[in-house]
User: Fold these one by one.
Assistant:
Number 1:
Amino acid sequence: MIVIFGIKEKLNPIKAQLSDVIHGCMKSVLGMPEDKRAHRFIPMDKEDFYYPGGRSDAYTVIEINMMAGRQVETQKQLIKTIFQEIEIQLSIAPIDIEIVIKEQAPHQWGFRGITGDEANDLKYKVNV
């Protein structure tokens, strides 16, 4: 699951395209299937969204929650690919993007009535 935070006036107009960009990166780097998009957008009022100096109102935070197992180099490639594609496709500079990957053990995920460590029919690999 991916959660995206930003100032609503900047985030709302680009939600669909940003979702496409992020999911394209997830597919190309992690091998995620097309139908495994789980994005949650949190558009915020400017007065509720504090961010570091030197950033513009386009500042966006992307939290990627995933089952543990991806190699460090794979995770780094995902982060760098997202920075690159957002800049190319949405003209948002990397200085205005913050990405964090949060890993949880498979047994800490619950979906389809089972836990992630019980799922043996995933259409993608976790250990890449």
Number 2:
Amino acid sequence: MLAIALGILAQGVNVAVLVILAICIAASASFPVLMLSLFWRRFNTGGVVGGMTVGLISSVVLAMIGPAIRGADALWPLVNPTVVSLPLGFLGAYLGTVLDGRDMDNEKRFDAFLIQVHTGVTLE
């Protein structure tokens, strides 16, 4: 339903711009979560939810008020809002992690996970 509504709003917009916006939305929602889950020992479920939510909402809102959708009436000057929405995704992930509290069991398993990620070797 949402995809249909967005498709109707995007009539007449250059396809290349729509591809840029799709990549922006995907990157802003998933890249902070991916990077922090690989390299930050304390990262937890609250950070995943916070990072994906803030990254997704900020990228969609900035795209909707930008020149790609609104044209000359744009409230936001950039066609590609990633320069702002990606750091907001990192901020949401950080705040979600801090507000959710520490998970000591998860932090204890992080070293084995890190070795598996970088080498492919599973430590049991």
Number 3:
Amino acid sequence: MHTRTFISFIFLAALLLLKCYLTTGTRWLVLAKMSQISSIQNVDFCNRLKGLVKRQKQICRRNLEVMESLRRGANLAIDECQNQFRNRRWNCSIVNQANLFGNVLKQGTREAAFVHSISSAGVAHAVTRACSSGELRKCGCDRSVRGRSPDGFEWSGCSDNIAFGAAFSKAFVDARERAKRYAGTNRSLMNLHNNEAGRRAIHDNMKVQCKCHGVSGSCELKTCWKATPSFREVGAKLKEKFDGATEVDQQRVGTRRQLMPINTQYKPHTTGDLVYMDASPDFCEPDKETGSLGTHGRLCNKDSKAIDGCDLMCCGRGFKTKKRTVIERCNCKFYWCCYVKCKECRKEVEEHRCI
């Protein structure tokens, strides 16, 4: 083989490898579509899982009991992504079962940043809750939160063990980005940063919950513990970070490579902020290359001027209005004792869908 031909072959192989990486960085999320896996005790299960790098399979084999929590975390992430983006052109649609979001994650866009952050957060949240509920032998409540607080209450109860949940998320979710073939690339640095931002969204929003003790609830003694926020709150926080994400590029700072803001007029991003490298497509038309499904046929709000409004959602193409009849429960009455009886009411509603 001639030298030039060989070099071309190596270059094409590298491109194919990179493309495979970019489109499968979160392929472990397919665990969400599996049936319950907590009863599986065979390490061969881990070896058969597609989309996992070697290190992730090792973690799976050593932590079989945690895999059901990881599956629940993947479900949390997908459901919350679809909730937060339900009124946007890109609505976190699942494209196929093998590579859930398709080519949307191929580029380093805001959307990719959000998916990585919410996925990492989903694992941390689910594993943390599993620890506190006693599902896992490897962990339990956070026993480091003890004693009397400066506010005068006693730390007691079962504080959520976010340290264990975040550590497991970091080990498993970050494993692909730290693999030798990917480590140090622009995209791996971006993904690692956004993975950490997802975990920070839980850690930085831990809540103090309390219970009063005393005669007739007099609260002579109050005991408190730390609890994770609801995942809906976590999703809302990360959606705010999505809207204010920082465009970055890799630069050498001393001996290290770091992500730095492209616009030097903006203040540097923090560990809790989302970062991106590529501009997002407009998602108006179907495009296999970008993974856009387009907005043809999407529901829109005729009276809204926001992104869910028909003008923006339909990208100026216009919309069609269709009336349909819906049946609702109405005129409900409570009867002693003890049931509620309702009538069925029909009403016409208008639906507006993009052309």
